[in-house]
UniProtKB/TrEMBL annotation, chain A:
PANTHER family to which the protein is assigned, alphabetical: ER MEMBRANE PROTEIN COMPLEX SUBUNIT 5
Coarse class of the protein's main subcellular location: membrane
Membrane topology label: Multi-pass membrane protein
InterPro entries with a match to the protein in the record: EMC_subunit, MMgT
Species per Swiss-Prot/TrEMBL record: Trematosphaeria pertusa
Subcellular location: Endomembrane system
GO biological process, one term: protein folding in endoplasmic reticulum
Entry GO terms, CC: EMC complex
Entry keywords, A to Z: Membrane, Transmembrane, Transmembrane helix
Protein name: Magnesium transporter
From TrEMBL, chain B:
Membrane spanning residue stretches: 56-75, 95-113
Species: Trematosphaeria pertusa
Intracellular or extracellular location(s): Endoplasmic reticulum membrane
Keywords: Endoplasmic reticulum, Membrane, Transmembrane, Transmembrane helix
InterPro entries noted in UniProt: Emc6 (IPR008504), EMC6-like (IPR029008)
Full protein name: ER membrane protein complex subunit 6
GO biological process, one term: protein folding in endoplasmic reticulum
Taxonomic lineage of the native organism: Eukaryota, Fungi, Dikarya, Ascomycota, Pezizomycotina
Length: 137, 115
């Protein structure tokens, strides 16, 4: 199925680009005249192809009824990628959303989820040393 | 009346429990599709030079078609297996959240191509 989705998307994008460009050329040459029928048809067809491609290349839906969902897992195993809780539910979030803060956060990280306090006395001592040596390292 | 309705729904849920992560996943997939296609319809509406109500009608027809595509390709004609309330979550889900991106690309392409 991924091949079909990609093919539909590519074809749709090509047609859409062509249709929009043709419209631009048409309005630049003959302003205030209605759009030719072939451009309109091409535009609508490209939109249809593209939305079909988007739907086809979207991930599969999952059954919401417990019985069917459990049956699917029984039959196919937990084949889908991603993380799972011990109870068998899929973890949808992508880990710690604040990882970019560099706090080595929370549940999966090694730290305790927050940065230690800034060592004020150490920094002051460092500064005093730096000032005493006349600004050289 | 409403009381009995909620009671029966609760009993129904107790008999056939629902997997919350699957519901979340399905809603996410639908809203993703809606967002992508909404801006696409905006491109089409702007290029066609639609104005005022015809543009919004175009959007509504487009979302209806996309819902039909989801119904056909993703749910295989059985939306109640994938959505708790098929009418609200599949046919009407996220229709108005895509409206803003539709208007955005609609006005952009109208200005680029037609004006």
């Amino acid at each position: 199925m991924p091949f079909l989705g990609t093919a539909l998307n590519t074809a749709g994008l090509l047609f859409l680009t062509h249709a929009v460009y043709s419209t631009h050329e048409h309005t630049a040459t003959f302003a205030h005249t209605p759009l030719p029928l072939d451009i309109t048809i091409e535009l609508l067809v490209s939109i249809l192809i593209l939305s079909a491609g988007i739907v086809v290349s979207s991930p599969q839906l999952k059954p919401i009824q417990w019985a069917k969902w459990a049956g699917k897992i029984q039959r196919g195993g937990r084949h889908s990628e991603g993380k799972w809780t011990r109870e068998g539910e899929e973890v949808l979030s992508e880990g710690d959303p604040y990882a970019f803060l560099g706090l080595d956060g929370g549940i999966g990280g090694k730290g305790e989820g927050r940065r230690g306090f800034w060592d004020v006395r150490g920094k002051r001592k460092e500064y005093a040393h730096w000032a005493k040596t006349g600004g050289k390292q | 009346m409403a009381f009995t309705a909620t009671m029966s729904e609760e009993r129904e849920l107790a008999i056939h429990p629902i997997v919350q992560t699957s519901v979340q996943h399905n809603t996410q997939v639908v809203s993703n599709i809606r967002n992508l296609t909404a801006s696409l319809f905006g491109v089409a509406a702007g290029t066609l030079g639609l104005e005022s109500y015809p543009g919004f009608i175009f959007y509504l027809v487009g979302t209806l078609i996309v819902s039909g595509l989801i119904f056909a390709f993703r749910t295989e004609g059985k939306p109640s297996e994938y959505f708790h309330r098929p009418f609200g979550d599949l046919w009407g889900g996220d229709v108005f959240s895509g409206l803003s991106s539709f208007v955005l690309t609609w006005t952009l392409f109208y200005g680029l191509v037609r004006a």
